[in-house]
Amino acid sequence: MGIDFASIDAAFGFQPYGNVLRSNLYAVNTAPTIYIMHNDIVVHGGTGVSTPIGYLPIIEDGSVPDSDTHILGSVLAVFDENMMPVKYIAPATAGNGTIAGYVLVADHPDQLFIAQEDGEANAIDLAEMGNNIDLIANTLCEGDTDTGLSTMELDSSSAATTAALQFRLIKPHEDDTPADDTNHYARWIVAVNEHFFNSTDSAGV
Hints:
The chain is mainly beta. The protein folds into two domains: 5-16 and 110-192, no CATH class; 24-106, no CATH class. It is 0% helix and 34% strand. The chain has strands spanning 15-16, 24-29, 36-37, 41-51, 54-59, 71-80, 88-89, 99-106, 112-116, 132-133, 135-136, 153-154, 167-172, 187-192. The strands form four sheets. It has a five-stranded antiparallel β-sheet, with no helix packed on it. The radius of gyration is 17 Å and the shape is globular. It starts with 14 loop residues before the first strand and ends in a 13-residue tail after the last strand. The mean pLDDT is 89.
């Protein structure tokens, strides 16, 4: 039998699961207050900005996406203000004085993602498949600055049947055994309940 990856703490953010259904470019305002990492879940900034490559919508750059925000998608690629690939955009990055850089976001409302749960003692078990759940991240959304990967995870303690939370638990990864005495880091495939492009939320259905 191979390695059961549910026993390994190795957060990687929210990676698209299966085909990427759609991606679009968004700008990051100059001097963000949070990190912007690969596989970060991001939120629409509610406005746009003029950039050297045209007018673009921005992502929210001041707070961690919480249960009151509508998710835009996950970051596929990060670029500086000159469209050069970078590992991440750090807080207070000045860029060109208007934008700190750009992100390519997997932003289709039907996109599935895979993410690791956060390793709490009350790990997600199979009976919670189909429940809703929120993400969890540190205050600045700081990830692994060596790899550029997000460390956002699924908040195990938030899993609930009807609460209007950000994601729906679809199934565990086939190589993981969720919720036993040692396996608190199972990877789960999730769907977005509360998406920026949805006219109505599906949370709690």
